[in-house]
Amino acid sequence: MARKTDPDVQFAIKAAKEALLDASLKGFPELKFGDILVDQKSSSNVVSEMQADLAARQIEHCLEAWEYLSQAILAMLGCQDDIAIHMAYYSELRSANSLLAATGIANKENKSYFIDSNQKRRARRVKTHQFVRDVWHDWCKRPDTVEAFTSLKVLPSVTLFDVYNSLNLRQSPSQSLLKWGYELLNFDKDHTSRNRSSYQVYRVYNGIGDSDSKKHGELLSLIWSHLSSTGSDGQLYFEKIYAQYLLAGACKDYSSGAEDEESEFDRKLESTLEQLSKDTGVPIESLRMHFDFDKDDSRFDLFDIAASSSTDVKNVVARAFILARFATNKLNVNLSKSKCQQALEWIRRWLEESGVLHDDVSREDVAGSSESFADAAVEVAELNLRRVWLEEPESASRAGQLKASLCWGIEF
């Protein structure tokens, strides 16, 4: 109860409930061309300057989430699970800060701030990690938060919102976001991992590790199966697979215990697709084709791994990936609405500086070879960690670069 009356907690709750809708979106036109995207005016009380600051924060935090996630993958493939957990947690934190900025909240050193509905600056000096912990629960209930997730396109004319609606799962998005932000609410595991990887002699007492295992490579291959491009900028198979996962789960629950579970599963799926067709106008034949799936598709495992409260490396990395994709979608929404070329140019420059692009390799080249990253992950998954860097170092390095997916995961 004491935490509820803590001024820092009250500030976080106010931020979650009162931050100005679309504050970041309104700042995109104020961004600049060149290396410097925005002038350092994060302490300004001028609304337009705060909005530009929020827009810039949304962009950089999102990109850095993928950088940290890539580092987590490389650490994981090197049998450095504690470092991987630490990097994955920071990826989650970056994604959260990008999403908060998109909804008018700047979590930063010195004084964090938000723009309230009266377009006034509200600021307080808070601990940045604790602020995310305090704000996340109420922030997940914001309508623009839910919209940022449910606006993900499953098909050109079908969003996750349509799928949730057809299944009567209207409260589910907020609940899912709370699960996927598990580390943000319970970050003790990161402290343990950071201490182990920094100065403790954990391995001499507990063993070097399981370098004969293939499980980390299998997780990486699973993630890349979701990261593959559908052929359209900004759209990944992640959204379609998640929609299929939701449908499969609902149909399994409905048919469980029935005399003929298979028939009941199919009947429930058909009635749901009929409702989806009615809601969206998409022909039922098209929906049947796109939702013709194996109800036990192994790609569904990603969401079960992420929903678990376990803090093993696979669970933390899975959650970090989903939050990074969520943050990227919100960035795509604002890029699309603002038509902000200076933001897209800055993102290209970031990709160059991070080593994804260079003089001989354009963004289009990388996007056109998206399947090669997934193929590399499959090669890695076939080997145990002891052999990966000896026999397939190029594949391991390539598959570890999850940030390369920004070349097709962002709507350029």
Explain the overall architecture.
- It is built from 23 helices and 5 strands.
- By secondary structure, it is mostly helical.
- The chain has one domain.
- It has a 3-stranded antiparallel beta sheet with strand order 1-2-3, with helices on both faces. It has a two-stranded antiparallel ribbon with strand order 4-5.
- Helix 4 packs parallel to helix 17.
- It starts with a helix and ends with a helix.
- The model has no long low-confidence stretch (mean pLDDT 92).
Question: Could you outline the blueprint of secondary structure elements for this entry?
Answer:
Blueprint: H1 2-5, H2 7-18, H3 47-77, H4 81-102, E1 105-106, E2 111-115, E3 121-125, H5 128-139, H6 143-150, E4 153-155, E5 158-159, H7 160-166, H8 172-180, H9 182-185, H10 188-198, H11 202-206, H12 215-227, H13 237-255, H14 261-280, H15 284-290, H16 301-307, H17 313-338, H18 341-353, H19 363-368, H20 370-381, H21 385-391, H22 393-399, H23 406-409
Antiparallel strand pairs: 1-2, 2-3, 4-5
